[in-house]
Amino acid sequence: MRLLAGNESVPGFANPARQNRMIMVADSIKLMLFPAMMAFAASSDLLTMTISNRISLILIGGFFVLAFFVGMSTTDVLWHLGAAGIVLVVAFGFFSRGWIGGGDAKLAAATALWFGFDHLMPYLVYASLLGGALTLLLLQFRAAPLPPFLARHEWLQRLHSKDGGVPYGIALAIAALAVYPDTAFMT
To answer: What is the pLDDT of residues 113-129, one digit of tens each?
Structure first.
């Protein structure tokens, strides 16, 4: 993926002051939006066992705004969309089998949109390994009795329930944050 160098102008923005504002917007999206949405997805999944569609929609919108501001080519955008599409199809296959939740599937696809094929494999490997470790920890947590001082918290009761799912969004978010610094947006 080719992004604009620091001395290149943003397409359609000849005014230097306006260009500086656009660069600040792009930097804000790069540095704050993606990490914040990942942290929010992980905490939301831990506490409620749900990941809001808004998180995925914000990630998708943020990607397109950032792609425009950094001058990503149409071809590169299409490759990123292809990576997201493949992840979405596979993840919804997992969802249909009950292996992951629908929010997890959408979050994985929205994250794949940001990574494209260049960083998709490391993301998926990390997410798989972290998800397996999370599942094993959760099984051990559920095998032990929940102390009364913890049992009064609804989210911990839900997490401790043997019939409950795995908040896989935590693994997806940690994997995404591990890979993100190596992407073209950040290097």
So the answer is: 999 999 999 999 999 99
